[in-house]
Amino acid sequence: MNRLSDIGTIKELLSKHGFTFSKSLGQNFLINPSVCPRMAELSGAGGAGVIEIGPGIGVLTNELCKISEKVVAVELDKRLLPVLEETLSEYDNVKIINADVMELDLNKLIAEEFSGMDVVVCANLPYYITSPIIMKLLEDKLPLKAITVMVQKEAAQRICADVGSRMSGAVTVSVNYYAKPQMLFSVSAGSFMPAPKVDSAVIRLDVLSEPPFKTDEKKFFEVVRAAFSQRRKVISNSLSSGLSISKDRTLEVLEAANVPSNARAEKLSLENFADIAKNL
Ligand code: SAM
Q1: What residues line ligand 1, using a CB cutoff of 6 Å?
Q2: pLDDT tens-digit readout, 57-109
Q3: Which of the 8 DSSP states describes residue 163?
Q4: Strand partners, 148
Q5: How far apart, in whole angstroms, are the C-alpha atoms of residue 274 and residue 145?
Q6: In the chain, is it the N or the C terminus that has fewer CB atoms within a 10 Å radius of its CB?
Q7: How, if at all, do strands 192-193 and 29-30 pair?
Q8: Ligand 1 atom closest to 22 (CA)
Q9: Is residue 45's pLDDT more than 70?
Q10: Helix-strand-coil percent breakdown of the chain, rounded to 5?
Q11: Is the peptide bond before 181 cis (omega within 30 degrees of 0)?
Q12: pTM over 0.85, yes/no
């Protein structure tokens, strides 16, 4: 068993380093011993290069180091660096970068650190910036095979919903443009220290080698954001106000795109959004 899943060991380690949890950095560390090996295995890390975001005290990092070619872990909290130095001392295939992942040029990092390797992301994400991190990983068009992340269960359900179903939202459509998402398994709130208020889930996004169709991406995502900005309204109203265009013009665009003006955003397909963008 990974000793970093043991509460006694964690408490001893943290008190030795004078570490206290930062709520604002989303620090909920995994203590359920079965989660990390399973997550590492299912992420495709075996024999690949791995980017981990937010290693914390290194519980998942340990499992990733065991099976992968190389791990580069990006941790924002510099107080965790001496802890990680201690907990990862037995591995020579790991590098810790002290940075905010949102500020990093990940294309450059991959070119410099993972030459010739398949690369995957595997991380228990800080929940305050789950969607921005996932969208950055996808929008930066990184040469990734897959992204396996732990997120809040509700966010996982939203991301993995079928496009065109009641649960779908802007994030569902956006993620599905770049990747094929799937729910892997649920993780109870009690699997973390401190325990968050809600359950979590691990999802995997298999990154598409190319987009599903050609579209003006700027317009496509503007349409998606506008369409879901007022999800209770019919599409003609949400687009007209979200894109600041007249009602008449909106109706023309929807007709040209073959989308009923009284449809709701959650009922539209990826292609519907692309057709609206094309006719704008
Ligand atoms: N991987 C560890 C685990 O599973 O126990 C810790 C996961 S904890 C949910 C999230 C981690 O992300 C924390 O270590 C936190 O300090 C780090 N973090 C928060 N914001 C970050 C950012 N913008 N860039 C990189 N790391 C960040």
Answers
A1: 25-30, 53-56, 59-60, 74-77, 80, 100-102, 124, 126
A2: 999 999 999 999 999 999 999 999 999 999 999 999 999 999 999 999 999 99
A3: T
A4: 122, 204
A5: 25
A6: N
A7: antiparallel
A8: 16
A9: yes
A10: 45, 20, 35
A11: no
A12: yes
